[in-house]
Amino acid sequence: MSLLQEVLAFNKEFVETEQYREYATTKYPNKRMVILTCMDTRLVELLPKALNVKNGDIKIVKTAGALVSHPFGSIMRSILVALYQLKADEVLVIGHHDCGMSGMNANAMIENMKERGISEETISTLNYSGIDIESWLEGFNKVEDSVAHSVDMIKNHPLIPAVPVHGLVIDPSTGKLDLVVDGYEKK
Ligand SMILES: [Zn+2]
After folding, report:
1. What digits encode the pLDDT tens for the residues 168-181?
2. How far is the CA of 98 from the centre of ligand 1 (A)?
3. Most buried among 74, 139, 150, 174, using CB within 10 Å?
């Protein structure tokens, strides 16, 4: 069975036996916050459990490295939608130790792309079109700095309302949270 068939077969059973009932909720978060975190596999279940959040409690936005890399990209738009349209009142940026984006080297990934059939020409055409692929793909060195940077980007965004923006780092094995930026503290 392919992965897709497996998913569809399970899904059929899930719906037929009404397993969705225990997840019934609304689109508004019970705990009025939006979390920006990483797509890391270890955080799929661990993060909600470690923060005591359940279906219906929060808005969650996931992206590699929990990075806000563009002030007018879809990550920032999601956060704004959560705050203005979906009743979230606080933002939590949660990076994690041992992140795939930590120390990620853009050149190594570009080499990988070439091995997988992306031509040198494509890469240089993009570079000549003003797209800086290297800095776009570049990871970060220290997760605490990267979280603080994302918090700063959100806090100083021209369209952000006056809400607390917190920064934290989670341990992907134990779920332990360390505070990097307390959004309640006035600067
Ligand atoms: Zn990560």
Report:
1. 999 999 999 999 99
2. 7
3. 150
